[in-house]
Amino acid sequence: MDALEGGLAQVDVDLGVANRPGVPGGTGLPGIYGRALWIFKSRPQEEQEAAWKFIKWLMEPEQQAEWYAGSGFLPVNSKAFELPKAKEIEAKYPQFKVAADLYRASSVSAVPPGPLLGPQFDVGLIIRRQAEEMLVGDKDPIDAINDAAEEANELIQDYNRRVE
Fold first, then answer.
1. Does pLDDT of 146 surpass 90?
2. How distant, in Å, are the alpha carbons of 35, 53, 119 from that of 42?
3. What global pTM score does this model have?
């Protein structure tokens, strides 16, 4: 956030935050994505044990509050929100509290949140590949979008045929 103060403050921009748009009849609450830590079983046992020890330490409220205050990433341990580091950053940047309140209001479910899209992972790969061809290669942006849409639609149609 200090980078925002240095950059945006100079151009007189009022930075605001809000929830992402939803669908009519939806909950109005955000989906939470991208939280994963991995321990590979192919690694030596000592490394796996060290990784597990690190993950347990990282999930403690103190480390989660520090991570939240330093990065803006929401803590996975809700006790972190009650610690001074979290309270201080929310007082300094009220935008953090908007996201945190939406996160805390979300329901808890064993079903992972996300789009109802069977081949979601593969569609993501298609999009990333097309973006790379556009950004690193010389592919026209419109062609990249159209090619990604065509490939993704074929994948989704194939998926839908298989699960009907």
1. yes
2. 22, 17, 27
3. 0.56
